Amino acid sequence: MNRFDLRQRRDELWESLEASANASAFDLEDFSRSLKELYAVDRFWTFPGRGVLWRLTHYLDEMQYTLIAQLVNNCRHYMMQDRYRFQAFSPFMTNLEWLDRPMLHESGNMEALSIHKPRPYFEVLIVHPCPDEYELLYRQHLATFKSPHDEFIYDIVLVDSAEDALTAVLANTDIQACIHLHHVPPGTETSAPLFERFTRPQLLHTLPVNYSESVEVNLCRTMRAIRPEIDHYLISELPASELPFSVRNHFDRVLFHVNPFRDLHEAIMNGVRNRFSTPFFAALQAYGRQPKGVFHALPLSRGASVRNSPWIRDMYDYYGESVFRVETSSTQGGLDSLLDPTGAILQAHMKAAEAFGADSTFFVTNGTSTSNKIVNQANLRPGDIVLISADCHKSIPYSVMLAGAFPVFLETWPIPSRDLYGGVELARIKEVMLDLKKCGRLEKLRQISLTSSTFDGLIYHCEKFMMEILAIKPDVIFHWDEAWSAFCGFHPLYYGRTAMSASKKIRQRMQDPAYREFHSQWRKEFDANPEEEKWDGPLYPHPDLVKLRVYSTQSTHKTLSAFRQASMIHVSDDLFDRASFVEAYRIYTSTSPNYQIVSSMDIARRQASLEGFYRVREAILLSLQLRRRIREEESLKPCFELLTDLEMVPERFRTPVGEGEGLAGLCSEWGYSDFVVDPTRITLDVSGCGIDGNNFRQLLMSRYDIQVNKTSRNTVLFLVNIGATRATVDYLFQVLMELAARFRMERRHHELPIFRESLPPLPRKRIFHPAFLPFEGGEDPPCDIRSAHYLGAEEYTTEYLPPPEALEAGRAGELQVSASFVTPYPPGFPVLVPGQFITPEILEYFHHARIPEIHGFSFEKGFRVFRKDYLEQGNRK
To answer: Which of 166, 394, 664, 812 yields a CA-CA distance of 20 to 30 A from 443?
Structure first.
């Protein structure tokens, strides 16, 4: 990866200018070449501006090399430190005026310190057919309405084509709003090279251009797909009465070309203000500032019981006054009830739904385990059939059991040499659904629960999976456990691979006349084909029959800036039963929710709405840089192997559309693949070190203070999140270098063996005792784990069987039936559920596993199994 994206290329060019300008002998050729390319690249940013490039060209013609070095150094300093964001108020100041002068960079601040906090800075993109002629006009008119009392500072960038506009919003992370005008061409000779190289690959999954609509409408639609947080405004030349609603509907506001600047400025500020607003966090702050007499629960409210205590005063000193001032059980005084929100929390929910692309969003304060329970309790009824991935979090089968539904477990493909597991094949899901259809039970199929991203970073192509599944059952409910994917909705790399973006895209396709025409022709050919193999190919749902029902549960705290246990449920359901959902929500939601967790979700939403694209872009960049350094460093290869899509995703699931470098290349490599590996989740095979993954983790934590996410027998997983920095990533790399040197030294002196031990694979299909099969027949019968669970809790029905005896019996063909959930860590999902036969393959797995943490298993007694005589009697309650 040489160039991640256009922004990195721009940084490289400025770095090249700086190196040439400060060389002992001015490098004229290299400087001229970099400056020429910079003219094409730098136009997508406001700072430092074209005036600086023109001045550099002038100095170059005059051979004023000292002045060139001064100007370039000043620009680089301000860009590297992001100091241009913290400028004093001056409406659209000319950067050249203060950059082209001597500065003392080491002083840390070239201007008088302001008594005011720096205000957030952003940029506004204006897509204008004649930007050069109108830029000064826009600057002058908008400047008259800017005020030192504004909460934010903004500057403007003008481009002259739709291609340049798309390139700009993907390259410039500061853009928060876009102004559209009529008569803008789709592309130009100037826009084409950069668009083809850096932009087009990132638009692979956006909807095709609708030639019956205008350029500005198509541009707005595409921008909303790749940067959904950006506000869009149209300045129309048409009279209000002649502008169709179908055009108005795409934009946040329509202005008219007769003196629009006051309204435009106010709309820009209000759009960002709306995203910046945090209703519940603001209400909590206001509550904390008010004097209160505490005559309710919580003695520590406002610090009353800790502030003056000689024994626990350190708690008050550590957490600070603010935490205690807002610790309350009250839902009044400007606060709100999480169980029945009508004020600030309801507003926070609505803002979160808009930010995450959902119809409705709900905050959950006790983790995504509870979010999963709420979704299943709301959607499932006793006797319903539900398909769940075998690698799902244990909260899903537990809640399915409590709801009285009958699950069919979909096994994931194994990666035996790494002791990892992949995802559920689409073909496997279709196979089970068609088996249910053949048995006349498809109507009882209520929901499908899948995990994306998996613990190891495997991401499904959500759109592709849902489209084909809807073709078999058009009203099935999708529950996507996206506990590790809350950040994915804020970068176009993941577009179509998240539940909400995929549901939005599917809705658009179902309403598209072109899709309707395509489906009509496809359906005729499909129905005319008598072969059963026709179901193996791509399937397309009927646009009139689809009832899209999608639920996403996300651990906000895992990948966004929220406190632990913060979780959100996002809903996009055509048949949403709000009353039933709210009832389930109230069942599992505490009547004493932690307000700090609730407010942190409000703040996490604000950050994601305003800088999510920037933060995720940085995380992906750092991840790819770390991957490249590990891959290219020869001294690491004897000890560490970096696992990529090639090692973790079988070839039959990979559908690349091309190759390339950086982010554009990654988009092309992913293409239409069923599964991809999230680049921010870095899995290393550490078997070459001579120790297993768990001991390697202990070494990292005890010696280097590095915490890691997950280990298997042979691997260690590192997560690069939106809080990672170049310094922390570099530290990790240096630690790996040091460890590799240490292990190589030990191997030379002590003949340290390569540790590579793989566990036997788990069976690809679970088998259940007939007593717990509610239906007869079928290749993949649903199971009644609820009955098995409660019967397994009785002493007279069960006994304990030590693993050696169980293994001996299993090898002899005598299978035991599990009476409990058994979940080893790793891999972290239930390997056994109540009513399931404990097959020899499973016993061999546990025999070789030597896993220190196994939930539902007694290391003293063994497996809890049903008594054979009880099952033979056929007693079921």
So the answer is: 394
